[in-house]
Each structure stands twice: as C-alpha cells, then as structure tokens.
Amino acid sequence: MESPIVLENIDKWVQDFAGNDELVILAMKTMLDNNVRSYKYMSKILQDWESKGFKSVSDVNIYEQQRQAKKQAKRSNFQAQQPVQKETLPDWAQPGYTPEQDPASKPDGGLKASLAGLKKLRQEHGI
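Structure tokens predicted for DnaB/C C-terminal domain-containing protein (127 residues):
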C-alpha cells in the first residue's frame, strides 16, 4: 500500500497533466517495465515528459519511436564505420597444406643428425 503522501503526489501529477491520468499510468508502466519500484524514478519520468511538453500518451509514443530510430541509426552508422581487419592465415591453416616431414618422424628419429650436430658443436667449443 502506498503512503498517503505518494498518493497525493500522484494526484498532483495528474493535475499537472490537465487530468490526463493515462500519462501517469504510462509512467508507472515504464517504471515497472524497467524493473524499478520507486516513486522517485516515476517522478523523474514525469518531470522529463513535462519538461518536453508532452500532453498525451501519443506524444510520448512518438518521442520514443523517434528516440529508438536515432539509436538504431547511430548503432548502424557506428558499425558501418568500423574498419574490417583482414588477417592472413599461416601456411599450416591454408587449404591443401601438407606438412613437411618432421625429422623426428624419420625411421631413425633424426637421431643421427642430432648426434652429428652435437659432436660438431663439442668440437667447435672444445668440450
């Protein structure tokens, strides 16, 4: 149950909108649609509508449609301006790629080549 002060304030809002209680009801619906349960929130909605000079629900609906259209235009405009980054795939990700044979996959496991390289390094460094 709402407090008497809130009910009085709601009645004043109806009077401010020249008895058009549909605007106050729409503000309540908007508040609930946004999952808010606060008189302050509803009051801010009504203040905004009053400052914009809305007199009827159709004024609010027209404004909201225009606002949504602007949002959509900005969004699509922003997406259109985004540069598309092109990347080249490495060779191994290209279609038809066949990997070179890994020395470790040879029958001797590439062991002879590795040992020869190790001997050479030892000789070069005198180890």
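Residues 62 and 70 are 12 Å apart (CA to CA).
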